[in-house]
Amino acid sequence: MDKWKELTPGELYTFCEFKDTAFESTEDLQDLESFIGQDRVISAVKFGIQMKKDGYNIYALGPDETDKKNLIEHYLKKSALQEDDAVDWCYIYNFKDNRKPRILKLPVGMGNELKKLMSKLIDELPSVLTSAFESEEYQNRQQVIEEEGKDEETRRFNELSERAQEQGFALLRTPAGFTFAPLKDGDIMAPEDLKNIPEEEQKEMEETVRELQKELQKILRKLPGRQREMREKKKDLNREIARYAVNDLIDDIRKRFTEEPDVQTFLDDVQKDIVENVRDIIGKQQPGGGLSALLQIQNPSDTSGYTSDDFSILNRYNVNVMVDNSELRGAPVIFEDNPTYKNLIGKVEYRSQLGALTTDFSLIKAGALHQANGGYLIVDARKVIMEPFAWEGFKRVLKSGKLRIESPGESYGLINTVSLEPEPIDLNVKVILLGERLLYYLLCTYDPEFNDLFKVEADFEDEIDRSDENQLLYARMITEMVRDNNLKALKRDAIARVIEYGSRLVSDGEKLSIQTHDILDLLREANYWAGKENHSLTERSDVQTAIDQMIYRSSRIRDRVQQTIKRKTLFIDTEGAKIGQINGLSVLMIGKSMFGKPSRITARVQIGKGEVINIEREVELSGPIHSKGVLILSGFLGQRYAIQRPLSLSASLVFEQSYSGVDGDSASSAELYVLLSAISGIPIKQSYAITGSVNQHGEIQPIGGVNEKIEGFFDVCADRGLTGEQGVLIPQSNVKNLMLKQEVIEAVEDGKFHIIPVDTVDKGMEILTGMPMGERDENERFPENTINFKVEERLNQLAERRKVYSGLQNGRKWE
Questions:
Q1: Is residue 77 classed as helix, strand or coil in its secondary structure?
Q2: Predicted TM-score (pTM) of this structure
Q3: Per residue in 702-718, pLDDT tens?
Q4: Looking at residues 228-256, what average pLDDT do you find?
Q5: Which residues, including other chains, have CB under 8 Å from residue 506's CB and lie 6 or more apart?
Q6: Where are the domains of the chain?
Q7: How confident is the model at residue 625 (pLDDT cuts 50, 70, 90)?
Q8: Which one, of 87, 596, 611, lies nearest residue 324 by Cα?
Q9: Is 650 a catalytic residue?
Q10: Topology of domain 564-769, per CATH?
Q11: Measured between alpha carbons, how far apart are the two ends of the chain, in Å?
Q12: Alpha-carbon distance 559 to 593, whole Å?
């Protein structure tokens, strides 16, 4: 039996050394110019933003601890500076249909300028119009129109009166209207004289009056028409005066926007509306002079759809600058932290008046898509999917390329209030979703539209190789974090400890974690402890204190588990040797706490049909991976020991005192060891704990959480007192993953604890039992006094007994 090789203290921890690099602290290092280890992501993002076809949006996938947002945002902002400036987006009143406000797209900065100019126009307009209508010119011209109408009316009545006099009648105006009275000697005839007129002459007079009345009726019928003509002339005069009064105000604005035809059209509409609604604009002022006449003539306009109380007519000349990019250079880069439907798509707000809800174009509010239009929008995938209506609305906008503000409540008939229908905006935005890998794969599988909308996969690395070059880059990354967060500078050995912690995060001495959130948390806490110790620079001891305190804060449950073992509530043996019993190692993860826990595994063997019964599975406490690992044991036993006859055993395996689910195959090697012990009757040393999975060929395979598992068993042994016989068997392939705590390394160095790598079950059994495993000779027999011999001998005995029992059951002897 070959002597096994134990790991030396130098193999249990990979210390950080900066070779050929002279610096004392982070003060001597430069910031990192680019993101470390994310070349694949940068290449994907670069492709995504340069690919201008539909659907080439980006999904950045990786763990939450990776600072995906900062990397993406940093790169996009650099790229955005090289692109054309964004534009301003405004909504204006639609004079043809007030329920459908129009969109106005303006060069950057011109939206606010137009708003200021229109606000100035609104402020000056009432006084300018009032002055124009109170001017002497307006009063004189209005008087001329009135006198022309009166002269025409007087002339016609005078002509009729002269004609009536010629026929002996006078035209009289009475409270009841006009009438004709007969004359006698130039005076109106008295009633008694009228009675004395002969009947024949009276009939002639009546006929004359009827003719005169017909002429009077003609004049009276034409009178309203002439009055309307006079009013129209006055209205034309009012329009002319109003147009003249606002020309200078409007022209000043026109000159500033000569290159913007949409603004010119808007100003045309404004000018026309002012002319048509002069009375509404200045109607609330005290009338006087020409203004009084204006108010008597001009009829109120009802084209706005709003009363003056809830929406002043002057407000319709205002400009709603929905997106102002005047302070921006290049394309916008927007991160929406709360991606609700309204925050993404925009909304129309309402004001409450007298119990009713009203709105207008000035209450249209932009969403993140409006703000990012022409640039980039970053959104957390999980948040947008969790928000009601947001994900479907988001996809609909991206598919259509039109940004239409709609209320989901209206779509589902939940709101009956009359609302606006703002003109949709052409959308040109590159969307970057940030999310976990699992969510990305689920969306790819279950959302048929997702792959068409997010064609670019930017997959973040979790770790990088721990080379000398990368260690120096990591130090510069730490330097950048320190400066960005106003922390104390780190000494050289403190930087080294942070880098070593980065390896522990990924449980690999040859790798470094680039999950920057965890590293930043450590730097902040180390800075705190450095302040407590009044250190001007953060030292290695401060970093170690921060690590120890992080573990201590989350280790209550771990300590309780250790207490139950120490008090022998949980049965774990660390001395002696027993048949069919072994110490397996598992890892528990509760919140941020991850720790190892030893578990007793036992096996029992009897006559059977070659079955290895997983008791955990029978009671539905075994996960599928654990069950698979147990089934593999049958394959190993059959291949090695059932060459000439079938297995005739029934074996049961169980995790003792396990009251919750078990999964994973990291205990399969321990289960095989304990099964071989139970079959052979050879005791196993209880001073060792085992971890590692096994395949059907008996090869030990790597597992996860090796550091926590070793430390978990070490803590149990240390509590009971290290004897120098205790240790852990780990897979040979896990040696590179070791980054153990200092106490374990010191115990190994003093020979009080042993960590032994194994690559086969045979080697592990020899260590655990002290007996050779044995190999078949030319006669296909195992040597005596070997483990394999005893296992095969016991299996043969079980097979013989099964034959005898089977023969008895059939009523005959076995032949």
A1: helix
A2: 0.78
A3: 999 999 999 999 999 99
A4: 80
A5: 462, 463, 512, 513
A6: 19-35+462-553, 38-76+337-460, 113-315, 564-769
A7: low
A8: 87
A9: no
A10: Ribosomal Protein S5; domain 2 (3.30.230)
A11: 41
A12: 11
The architecture CATH gives domain 38-76+337-460: 3-Layer(aba) Sandwich (3.40)
* pLDDT at site 684: 95
Instruction: Say which of 347, 709, 763, 790 is annotated catalytic.
Output: 709
Answer whether 534's CB lies under 8 Å from 762's CB. no
Angle between helices 199-256 and 290-297 (to 10 degrees): 110
For the residues of 257-307, what is the DSSP string, one character each? TTT-HHHHHHHHHHHHHHHHTHHHHHTTSPP-THHHHHHHHPPPP--SSS-
Report whether 108 contacts 342 (CB < 8 A). Answer: no
Place of tokens 């709105």: 359
Note if 666 is an active site residue: yes
Pair 760, 694: CB distance under 8 Å: no
Residue located via tokens 């207490």: 563
Question: Do the strands 611-614 and 649-655 form a parallel or antiparallel pair, or are they unpaired?
Answer: parallel
Distances 659 to 275, 593, 628, 655 between C-alpha atoms, Å? 86, 20, 20, 9
Within 8 A by CB and 6+ apart from 580, the residues are 602, 603, 604, 605, 674, 677, 678
- Name the nearest CA neighbour of 478 among 439, 435, 521: 521
Rounded to whole angstroms, how far apart are CA atoms 663 and 705? 14
Q: Which of 304, 599, 666, 669 is catalytic?
A: 666
- In CATH, the number for domain 19-35+462-553 is 1.10.8.60
Q: Compute the half-sphere exposure of residue 5: CA atoms within 13 Å on the CB side of its CA.
A: 10
Contacts of 643 (CB under 8 A, 6+ apart): 780
